[in-house]
Amino acid sequence: MLRKWCIPLAGLAVMLGWAAAGPAVAAPALHGGAVTRLTRPAARLARPAGHGTRPLVAPGGPADAAESTNWSGYAAASGTYHSVSATWTEPAGTCRGGDQYSSFWVGLDGYNSASVEQTGSEVDCVGRTAEYYSWYEMYPAYPVNFSNPVSPGDQFYGSVTFNGGSSYTLVLTDTTKGWSHTVSAALSGAADSSAEVIAEAPCCTASGGILPLAHFSPVTFSSATVDGSPIGTFSPAGIIMIDNAGRDKDSVSPLSGGTSFTATWLRSN
Question: Is residue 10 part of a domain?
Answer without folding.
Answer: no
